[in-house]
Amino acid sequence: MSTAEDDWTRLLRLLDEREIALRTTGERLGYLAPAGAMDEEVTGLVRAHRDRLLTILTGDGTALAAAPAGVGQWRMCKAQGQAADPSVWNITQRITLRGPLEPERLAAALTAVTERHESLRTRFLDTELGVLQQVLPHTPLDVPVEDLRGLAPTERDAALAEALDAEVGRPFDLLAPPLLRARLLHAAEEEWVLLLSIHHIAVDGWSLATVLADLGTLYRTGGPLPGEPGRMTDHACWERTVVTRAAIAAAADHWAEALGGASLSVDVPTDRPRPEQRSGRGETAGFRIPAAVAEAVGRFAAAHSTTASAVLVAALARLLGSLSGASEVLILLSNANRTRPADEKVVGLLTGSMPVLMPTRGDSGFGELVDHAAEAIASALDHSVMAFGLLVEPLRERGVPMPAGYPQIVLAVQSTPAIALDLPGLTVEIEDIPGHSARADCAFSLTPDGEGYSGQVEYDADLFDPGTIRGWLDALVADLTKQLAVPLA
């Protein structure tokens, strides 16, 4: 005769085997399951163990809602645990405000933002039911204010730099939300610096634009905002209906065939041998693609019935080919991954990366590379519902030679809503503050800004020296200028 513990073990096994996901809203227990999965046996076991399930899901009643972690959230929890420096996942903005700022009003608006968007007050924990996201009640956000007005200019600048460095390097605890921090520095009589940090598990580029837009509106109006925001718990539950074991296997089969047997390692020369394990040490370098070149990128893309991303992927492939001598390279292209109308309002981590296998030279010129990039990106988008990061091990099992140092080369071409903060009576300058860690060998980011593209590369400082990266960036811009036949100024 089975015991209660035996029945509990059987329930956990059946939930896993049948891919049944449990969620809660308050004390209401719900589920998502494939057709026929919730049969009489499972239903009876769930009823018998309802209290124990609710205790796990709600964290002894402290969570307002709970659901399985989304795909991106699950992968981020894993990456956080493996990172030598967890602060690599901080997204930090330095926001300089000039004018008659009201600090209490700003703190109230920041609190209202965390109340509106559940991902900012969500904790993540590994349980018998898998990795869960638990939405906690909102509490007033602590926004410390530090007055630097009495300092000499050199001392003030040093204090600002120290505060920035400390904020960038301070990791979040995924068990202890909020996953947003704010610190306000009063630099001069009508000049303030807001240091705003959010963990990447709670936002992506699209989400950050939403957070700042809502912050501006809440500061102006005092809130609340009209309409319901998207919920990351809803998005994660929808994902469970499409990211199944069968779908993962099918996606791995597709990419195993699409990627073929080519070496997928991008063997560019390094300044030092690759260590067995990343230390996490990283640096960043900025660069620009001038307006004339950016305009030529747009014209070339239109002439080839594609997007700027395809032109920029082709240019990066040429650079990597010239450095490595390889005839093919694998570039991971970031994708907003917001395919449903409901996703547009979600603040959370939805962004994924798509593999683009590129030749590094075209027999008939640069246009051939761009056409290849366009086709590869379109094919990847057709299969983008399955996060490629989930497929690395299944692909290795299928004999695909995924690089040991995955990910290696990442490219993000921003097409998300503009990052802006509109506060009445204030001029606002927003600057992304990079950390001192690296998530890949090289992660390139390009953002259109009206004067061309603002570029940044985050690179592994274990492998590369600053001068090496600077040389690459200069070569990338020079070659793109040449390929597009842009007259030199």
Largest sheet: 6 strands, mixed
Count of alpha/pi helices: 14
What's the mean pLDDT score?
93
Question: What are the secondary-structure elements, in order, as H or E?
Answer: HEEHHEHEHEEEHEEHHHEHHEEHHEEEEH
How many beta strands in the DSSP annotation? 16
The residue fraction in helices comes out at 25-40%
- Spans with pLDDT under 50 lasting ≥5 residues? none
Q: What percent strand?
A: 15-25%
Instruction: Walk across the major sheet and give the strand order.
Output: 10-16-15-13-11-12
Shape descriptor: globular
> Radius of gyration from the CA trace?
24 Å
Structural category: alpha+beta
End-to-end gap:
85 Å
Describe the structure.
By secondary structure, the chain is of the alpha+beta class. It contains 14 helices and 16 strands. The strands form three sheets. Strands 10-16-15-13-11-12 form a six-stranded mixed beta sheet. A five-stranded antiparallel beta sheet has the order 2-1-3-6-5, sandwiched between helices. Helix 10 packs across helix 11 and helix 11 crosses helix 12. The protein is globular and about 80 Å long. It starts with a helix and ends in a 6-residue tail after the last helix. The mean pLDDT is 93.
